[in-house]
Specification:
By secondary structure, the chain is mainly α. The protein contains 3 helices and no strands. It has a single domain, classed as Up-down Bundle (Methane Monooxygenase Hydroxylase, Chain G, domain 1).
């Protein structure tokens, strides 16, 4: 248990940062899952920049490693490019 005020404050601030980081990571994962469920290329392409932005922010804040962010972005863009466009009849 922490004995001085600064150590107690550090525990509180670390907990708050931990909760914020987990929330942002979970939000990004949820968006990725939504993207994977999409079948239309146009809607997936519209969602892709938002996910890229989230991944970049997570990497900049050291929530995830920058290489992990880059790998996820590459795999997602490859997935979206492989989707077929919706044919308007």
């Amino acid at each position: 248990m922490a004995n001085n005020l600064s150590a107690k404050k550090r525990i509180r601030s670390n907990h708050a940062k931990h909760l914020r980081n987990r929330y942002q990571l979970k939000t990004c994962k949820t968006f990725i899952k939504k993207l994977k469920k999409l079948n239309e290329k146009t809607t997936a392409e519209a969602l892709l920049p938002d996910i890229f932005s989230m991944l970049d922010k997570l990497a900049a804040r050291n929530v995830i490693h920058k290489n992990k962010s880059a790998n996820r972005k590459a795999k997602l863009s490859k997935y979206v490019s492989g989707l077929t466009s919706a044919v308007v009849a």
